[in-house]
Amino acid sequence: MRKDVIDLSRAVPPIVANLEASLASSMDERIHRNDAGGLLRTNRPRGTEEDRRAGAEWISRRLAFVPDIDRMIVTNGTLNVLFLLLNQLVNKSGTLLTEEMTYPNMQALSRILGFNIRGIPMDPGGLKPDAFEDACRTINTNKVLYTIPTVQNPTATVMSAERRIAIATIARRYNVLIIEDEAQALMVENPGPPIATLAPELTWYVMGLAKTVVMGMRVAFLMAPRAQDADALMDKYGKMSMWFVAALQAELAQAFIANGTAHDATTRIRQIAASRRAIAADILQRPDLAKGPLGLHVWVPTRSNASDLASEALAAGVLVRPGIQFAAEPALTKAMQGLRISYCETRDEDDLRRGLTILARIISA
Fold first, then answer.
1. Residue 42: C-alpha distances to residues 28, 45, 254 (Å)
2. Among the four 29, 151, 219, 326, which has the fewest Cβ within 10 Å?
3. In the predicted model, is pLDDT for residue 37 greater than 80?
4. What pLDDT, on the 0 to 100 scale, is given for residue 286?
5. Which of 141, 146, 140 is nearest to 171 (CA)?
6. Residues 283-315 as b or e (16 or more Cβ within 10 Å = b)
């Protein structure tokens, strides 16, 4: 790969100016506590009560209620949450249902854990309820739905309230458990209700800090349907420390949530994302993009083969991701003819403009 490549492939938040100062002061405060040695030498399976309380407070910004901390588990990032849940809920005999394009590690997790995966067709509104119901009705194995209803990856779709209700209703009808991943949900003003509030008895709700506060903070919060469900997960995995949240990360997360740094960072990230999204809409000559949700990426459908366009862009010095890289199943569908373009990875706005200009030429050719 060229050394001068402009990276528009990673949906990561921009660096927020006052975060570094807050990081230094929060770390100083935590490591100079009288009990700091004990805090940092202790594993945190599930997270401490303080960790879980902070997590419950953070996700309440989206849920509109503060969950009981007995339903909460704090982990070392969202991927670790998914590894635990997929192994526990789907296992080798089951089938994971998900959008036909989804979190790109799903195929790898399917191979590692041995479960089947079925991509459910999408339309501009997200996961299609009729296609979801058809899969529920025709697949005879144990089924779990993994969905990203708010700022979907890679399409940036925000599912309407009506569609969320339809998905929850179908899941109830067929008793299908749901893993709801809301990595970027706090980037959006008043999205539809979380599915976890529509089918709480079925839904495992996941939200991390890496997309809306700072990329390097590998802390994720999991809300189980019931306290006993969280207990069952801990009974199976509670001694496997590879997924435990790191003590210093957890302490910083507590501090950032308590002192308002996390909230302020999310607010500022939303502002930067809105500005950069407007730049993308202007240069790509797609004004509809400026009207979309304020996530960290946009989805641009293409007339030509998206993988070929991505290769051409890389040769010209711009890295983007074609839809096939997000495929739930290893087969190209019509919906995958597009590029996910992320606009907050590069710090220099001039680089962003230069990269988008190159892409605009390639896409329109």
1. 19, 9, 16
2. 29
3. no
4. 94
5. 146
6. bbebeebeebbbbbbbbbbbeeebbebbebbee
